[in-house]
Amino acid sequence: MALSLPHAEPGHLVWKRTTVDGRTALYGVAGEGTPILFLHGWGLGQHSYKRALKRLVRMGNRVYAPALPGFGGTPDLPARQFSFDGYADWVDQFLTAVKVDEPVFVVGHSFGGGVSIQFAHDFPDRVRTLVLINSVGGSAWSAGTPNAASKVNGTGRSMAQRPLWDWGIHFPADLLTPRQITKVLPVVLEDALPNLVRNPRAFVRVANLARQADLRDELEDLKARKLPVVVLWGDKDRIIPRASFDDLCQAIGNEGEVVEGTHSWLLADPDAFGEVMTNVLPVARLAKSLEDEDRQS
Q1: Can you give the CATH number for the domain in which 53 is found?
Q2: What is the pLDDT of residues 253-273, one digit of tens each?
Q3: Residue 130's domain spans which residues?
Q4: What is the b/e burial string over 58-96, where b = at least 16 CB atoms within 10 angstroms of the residue's CB?
């Protein structure tokens, strides 16, 4: 049973808690209409995206934004379940706990994008459309000519070869550019800093999982299933390089869309996020209406 935390202002996300696999899970929810599941990035949590998610609510959607295990007060996954498969299973159980039984529109940012890919792959009946925002899951760190064995030859390097310290040092630099520091720093102080203090182990474990993620095979399966997938990437992202974005696009069979901004552009400019999603959401609604008509005929 889901229990509400202190009530938020009308139209804002309401913070609640439920139980997933016998452990507490915290999440935000708001709105009515098309169900959207939003999965957050590494080190952050559901609160970080509230300004961006309000744009989705205003478009006539019901948004669910859980704190993934290890962040935002949601306990870690058990060691035996710590994998993208384990996170996908958790997401499936979360939707059951909050009584969402129809296919959802899934939006994943950064690490949440990797979880979204695995979830869509493992639970095809749960997902209507997938949007990946500066997502992990592409293998390339720097560009190279693919080969049959590793898909990256000596002229390129894989993300798994990228040292964790190099990945980590770009995180604050990417978030806290002079142009967006006044908008993003409060988010970091509200979400990322408490996450680090509360569970520093999760920071490192999830960073390693994200850094080594190669989900191209799963994306190729989604392409074969004809699942609608939109891939977005910020042109100044120093955490997820262009080569990794290109990997995702190649696997899914489309060019993706490059937007202006850093890794967390949707935090700094939620209006731009809303504009992008305005072009994406009608497609999902059309697909839903066609399915409803097929059921009634």
Answers
A1: 3.40.50.1820
A2: 988 999 998 888 998 888 999
A3: 3-296
A4: ebebbbbbbbbbbbbbbbbbeeeebebebbbbbbeebbe
